[in-house]
Amino acid sequence: MTRIGLILSAAFLFLASPLLSQEKKELPAAVKEIFEKAEQIELLSLDPKAKKENTENAFHSWKVLGKTVIKEKEDRTKVLSAVHKGIADNKGLAALCFIPRHGLRASHSGKTAELVICFECLQIQAFLDGKPQQGVLVTESPEAVLDKVLMDAKVPLAPKK
User: What are phi and psi of 77, to 5 degrees?
Assistant: First the structure.
């Protein structure tokens, strides 16, 4: 492919998906509320190359490499602040692929909120009680925070591109 072809292909890939909210710079209210009120958050390391048909050891069809529970309020606040800032800072850019390496899960008052996060594509898929919600765009900035929490808990990370 020529250099111009590569540039045009890359420009096309950075058009935001219609399933993502470009105008709304935050998670859906019900999802956000669960994460804010939860007493613990589960952070998952996902294998972006291993989509699974069965639900055993899978998170929204992605193979789980490992996970850790974030119980300390300070640590939960740090993770959620990084994610919220990454969402707020996105300027409407995203790739059309979806290669997630991170997941977050929280429960409160009998409801469960989950996020499947792809920092490569700059997208977050949100779920409420297993049902898809409006997704949002994100920057790469929260990735370092999430990776550090996983590495500190000795959870394996998927290789990056």
Answer: -60, -40
Burial, 32: exposed, middle or buried (Cβ in 10 Å; 0-12, 13-18, 19+)? middle
H helices present in 3-63, as ranges: 3-13, 29-37
Domain 3-152 is in which class?
alpha beta
pTM more than 0.90: no
Which tokens is 48 given?
């972006």
Section 135-147 average pLDDT: 97
Cα distance between residue 115 and residue 59, in whole Å: 10
Domain boundaries, the chain: 3-152
Per residue in 101-131, is it b (16+ CB within 10 Å) or e — as a string?
Answer: bbbbbbbeeeeebbbbbbbbbbbbbbbeeee
Query: What is the pLDDT at residue 12?
Result: 41
Q: Which residue, chain included where needed, has tokens 């859906």?
A: 28
